[in-house]
Design brief:
The chain is of the alpha/beta class. It is built from eleven helices and 13 strands. Strand 2, helix 2 and strand 3 form a beta-alpha-beta unit. The longest helix is centred in the middle third of the chain and has 20 residues.
Amino acid sequence: MPSTAPLHLAAEIGGPPRYDPEHYIGLARLAERGALDFVTLGDSFARPGLDALAVLSRVAPATDRIGLVPTVTTTHTEPFHVSSAVATLDWVSRGRAGWNVDVSMTEAEARLFGRRPAAPADDLWREAGEAADVSARLWDSWEDDAEIRDVATGRFIDRDKLHYVDFEGATFTVRGPAIVPRPPQGHPVTVVDATGGPALETAARRADVVLVRATAPARAAAIRTDLRRRAAAYGRDPDTLRVLVALTVDLGDAETAPEPGLESGPPLAAGGSYYRGGPVDLAELITQWHRGGAADGFHLTPITPGRDLERIVNGTVALLQHRSLFRTFYPGGTLREHLGLARPANRYALEGGRA
């Protein structure tokens, strides 16, 4: 049966390291003009460049509606600090933040910190899942109305509405509560790239948005079905999971070379999801896959951000909008509203007492 669900589109705005904020602001504004759900900014400890979360905190006040999703590595970092930083991004963007949870697996990256050696991927993704879990608990550790700000009585916080999380994981413990009030979205959107096997369980259990790679719509549909089944097994409503196919796109012509440092490859190569062609053909691919129920949408990584994102927005997205397959404006103000996801209830308020 053809899908009638809304189509979701996102784009990566990273590439070779840049140190001018106007570059990222310009790309985010371009994506916003196309009404894309969100932009991502990749990051890792293995490459030079600016901190993605800090960059998008600079982009936030220069944009109005676009969701902002930096990659945040949970290995070698403190979950308390991570949750505070992501919550801060949600505040400065007025409810448009997410985070793309990632891990750091190499010994070279471990030596940058000197705290512990590299660990197996299974262990790191289990730890990443715990980091996502404790972050959500910390975001809930302030009830929405915990702030009083009563000058007359000198009371700033209702302490009965602050909660200890008392979390004990395999590699860390966190007592809480948070130092940042509950974010505007309740929980900023959690994104997980589930391409690797060890990330699959973390994605099914913790993610709001899952990125997958597939070279055919039937394969994408099978992955989506499996993720929804796993989410249901964890007691989640599978309809709260958004599965996006990740495509690296090259919309250049023969006279235009990709930016230095970025690889090229054949369309939808077996080693990943790579599209080379024109904006119209890309719109056709997205239309066919989405209508067939293969995915809830697409996450597009332009091989040359400045060139290809413009062609995605003014070519591919414009055509999808003309066909009434993609929205022409944002119906809400938060990233959760863009994705059709409800604002989570506060677990501690529901329990009716201190954690």
